[in-house]
């Protein structure tokens, strides 16, 4: 299923990855979903989930921060918008 989702959230678990020698590694659940007004906007699509191991989740978070900073810099450079800080 593809399509635009307006919201994202992450939480620890419930997925787990078994470890050699016993025990389990708790995974990070990432959920993409539409906001509460999705039905009115006609964008009500099923939620999308993925489970990442903690290293993958950290890598994704670091890349998201870097891309967000780059997008903000490009926006400022093009004089599209001024953030209120």
Observed structural traits:
single chain; 85 residues; alpha+beta; 3-stranded antiparallel sheet; 3 strands; 33% helix
List the helices and strands and how they pair.
Layout: E1 7-18, E2 24-33, H1 38-41, E3 48-52, H2 54-77
Antiparallel strand pairs: 1-2, 2-3
Helical content stands at 25-40%
Q: Structural class, please?
A: alpha+beta
Task: Write down the domain tally.
Answer: 1
Mean pLDDT comes to 86
Q: Calculate Rg over CA atoms.
A: 17 Å
Could you explain how this protein is built, in words?
The longest helix is centred in the C-terminal third of the chain and has 24 residues, at 54-77. This protein has a three-stranded antiparallel sheet. The mean pLDDT is 86. A hairpin with a 5-residue loop joins strand 1 and strand 2 (24-33). The radius of gyration is 17 Å and the shape is flat. It has 85 residues and is of the alpha+beta class. The termini are far apart. 33% of the residues lie in helices and 32% in strands. It has helices spanning 38-41, 54-77; strands spanning 7-18, 24-33, 48-52.
């Amino acid at each position: 299923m593809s399509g635009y989702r307006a919201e994202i959230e992450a939480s620890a678990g419930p997925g787990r990855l078994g470890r050699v020698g016993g025990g389990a590694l708790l995974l990070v659940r990432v959920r993409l979903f539409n906001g509460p007004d999705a039905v009115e906007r006609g964008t009500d699509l099923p939620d999308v989930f993925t489970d990442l191991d903690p290293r993958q989740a950290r890598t994704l978070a670091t890349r998201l921060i870097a891309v967000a900073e780059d997008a903000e810099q490009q926006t400022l450079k093009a004089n599209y918008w001024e953030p209120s800080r």
